[in-house]
Amino acid sequence: MFSYNGNMANHLKDRQYYEDRYDAVTVEVGRREAGTLLRARAEFYKNAKLKDKEEKAKMEFWWNRLYWWLFEVPVLLERWENKNGMISEWMHEDKLLDERLAEARPTFEPTCSYCGKQGLRLKLKELLHRGSGGGQEVLFMLDCGGCGKRSAFWQDGIELEASTTPCPKCGSDLEMDVKTKGRTMTTTYTCAACGHEEVEKTRLGEAEKPDPDYERDKKFFCLTDKRAATMQAYRQKWQEACHMMDEEMERDAKKEVYDVVSKINIVKIADLIDKLRPAIEAAGFIELRFEKPIIAYEFTIEFSCLDKNSVRTDGQSRTALKKAIVNNLTGTNWRLMSDGISYRLGYLSGRVRAYEAERDLAELVEKEAK
């Protein structure tokens, strides 16, 4: 019978492993995102002719503000805020992998691939990619007590196809043995059929050198809790500053539009009624009535009236009323709503909308210019 006394690869590590993993990514992000700004700062001080310490202190103040605005608040603070959540997610994912491995059992009774005996001992369970698919599957590595050789099967019973090298003399499969001594790896290929043997020696590369600037950059880019709290308190001001800069840049890019906006007559409701009433009545309409304003996403006022001229058709009546309203709203912050004017047996109604925000007025000017 199959024996389950083997080991399995552990995916879940202690928390410090994930802390280090996240910090390493933060350092990479910091070096990439802040590189341009830091190089610009170094170049500035290289070429600038600062007169005294006071002038240098003033420039350093503004460089620090730029660093806050362009990098520390929008990038590093977000990395700090997302750290615990991301680490918890990584640990949860690895825990699920370990649970999946622990519960995995073959769906078959394995036999040795070399001598055909049963009673194999499980030595290792691993999650590996199988083929070109994106998911991982469980691979069982089993040792035979009879011949001492190892077999490997996927959970569905399919044997792992190990790549083999044919013997150059007789074509049989070569058996590979790998031994490492120091930084030299010796690989020996032996043919059991004809005795042919090949030996390859490989000089292993030097161990990866530690990054000499990593600890320095880690202190620079990985925010402490105290520093992060300061940045969180500052963020509201940063958002306001970004909003002001965005508005200023938009105003500069659309100077002609905002020049027109500055000349628009902002009309209040009482003045609007006084402005429209004589014009509408002069066009032949009576019993003009304005309802209470509707304050929602749009600020609108409904109106209604009767056509005094009974010989006009509904189309002529709507056209006359629309002309009287539109002509008198030109140059103001009010417009007739796009749904137009409705007509039933000489009774007409519609809505006018107020534009209050400067940005909304600018969009209105651009739309009408087109």
Compute the average pLDDT.
84
Largest sheet at a glance?
6 strands, antiparallel
Helix content class: 40-55%
Please compute the radius of gyration using only Cα atoms: 39 Å
Residues in β-strands, percent:
15-25%
Find the structural class using helix and strand composition. Answer: alpha+beta
What name does the CATH topology of the largest domain carry? Heat Shock Protein 90
Return the CATH class of the largest domain: Alpha Beta
Low-confidence stretches: none
Can you offer a commentary on this structure?
The chain has eight helices and 13 strands. The protein is α+β, with helices and mostly antiparallel strands. The strands form three sheets. Strands 8, 9, 10, 11, 12 and 13 form a six-stranded antiparallel sheet that branches. The protein has a four-stranded mixed sheet with strand order 1-2-3-4. The chain has three domains: 7-103, no CATH class; 121-203, no CATH class; 262-369, Heat Shock Protein 90. The longest helix has 51 residues, at 53-103. It has helices at 15-47, 53-103, 214-221, 225-253, 255-262, 269-282, 314-329, 358-369, and strands at 7-8, 121-129, 136-143, 150-154, 174-181, 184-191, 197-203, 285-290, 294-295, 299-307, 334-336, 342-344, 347-354. Helices cover 46% and strands 21% of the residues.
Quick description:
The protein is an alpha+beta fold. The protein has eight helices and 13 strands.
